[in-house]
């Protein structure tokens, strides 16, 4: 089980949901600012702690060795979490999966494998775990999945060049990825980037993208 905290929309009847996945060493506490910053009164939030303790925060997988087992374990946990949200009245088609750094990797890994299309995926300052394996496992519904993927041109922790190559490979295979670079390091680039994320989230609920 993953530790979560729900932050409800001001519009009480809304079933639209953003699931928020933090980065290495962080926790749900690091994203309590996000709902206010997004300024979307109809959006609910589910803040999630990764399963492994890491120097006062949490980690989604062990990045020092073979990341695969940890990624697969966290993928299963997040699949279950999304299924529980559906049971609680938050449909997949109304859910955006957001992740930063390690959380970005998990959002992409889970979002393009989940058997039902989500409203959208937002990945910030991360990378893709085993792109060829991902492409081999994408279910039909996920071929229509939309991803906003942002990265910093001088990110010292996750260099941008290999991530560009991964994105190009996935785009060439037909995945719907909106790629945007910012002059930033390993962070969110303030209002400029938040505006882009907000626009993408709003567009994810437009009639043309509804299930």
How would you describe what is shown here?
It is a single chain. This protein is of the alpha/beta class and 211 residues long. The chain has a single domain, classed as Rossmann fold, CATH 3.40.50. It is built from 6 helices and 9 strands; from the N terminus they run ββαβββαβαβαβαβα. The strands form 2 sheets. It has a 7-stranded mixed beta sheet, sandwiched between helices. A two-stranded antiparallel ribbon has the order 4-5. Helix 1 links the parallel strand 2 and strand 3. The longest helix is centred in the middle third of the chain and has 20 residues. The chain is globular, with a radius of gyration of 16 Å. 38% of the residues are buried.
Strand content: 15-25%
The percentage helix is 25-40%
Name the CATH homologous superfamily.
Alpha/Beta hydrolase fold, catalytic domain
Spans of at least 5 consecutive residues whose pLDDT stays below 50 are none
N- to C-terminal distance: 29 Å
Number of domains: 1
Average predicted confidence as pLDDT? 95
How are the strands ordered across the major sheet? 1-3-2-6-7-8-9
Summarize the biggest pleated sheet. Answer: 7 strands, mixed
User: Helical stretch count?
Assistant: 6
Q: Helices and strands, in N-to-C order?
A: EEHEEEHEHEHEHEH
**CATH top level assignment:** Alpha Beta
Shape descriptor reads globular
Q: Identify the CATH architecture.
A: 3-Layer(aba) Sandwich
Taking all Cα atoms into account, the compactness measure Rg is: 16 Å
Number of strands: 9
């Amino acid at each position: 089980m993953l530790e979560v905290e729900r932050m409800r929309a001001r519009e009480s009847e809304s079933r639209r949901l953003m699931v928020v996945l933090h980065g290495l060493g962080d926790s749900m506490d690091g994203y309590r600012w996000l709902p206010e910053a997004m300024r979307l009164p109809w959006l609910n939030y589910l803040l999630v702690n990764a399963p492994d303790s890491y120097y006062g925060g949490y980690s989604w997988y062990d990045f020092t060795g073979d990341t695969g087992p940890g990624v697969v374990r966290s993928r299963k946990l997040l699949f279950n979490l999304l299924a529980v949200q559906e049971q609680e009245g938050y449909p997949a088609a109304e859910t955006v999966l957001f992740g930063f750094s390690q959380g970005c990797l998990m959002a992409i890994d889970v979002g393009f494998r989940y058997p039902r299309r989500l409203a959208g995926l937002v990945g910030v300052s991360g990378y893709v775990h085993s792109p060829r394996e991902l492409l081999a496992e994408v279910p039909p519904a996920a071929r229509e999945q939309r991803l906003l993927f942002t990265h910093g041109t001088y990110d010292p922790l996750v260099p941008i060049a290999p991530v560009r190559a991964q994105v190009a490979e996935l785009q060439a295979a037909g995945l719907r990825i909106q790629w945007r670079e910012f002059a930033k390091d390993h962070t969110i680039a303030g209002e400029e980037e938040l505006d882009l994320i907000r626009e993408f989230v709003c567009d994810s609920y437009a009639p043309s993208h509804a299930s």
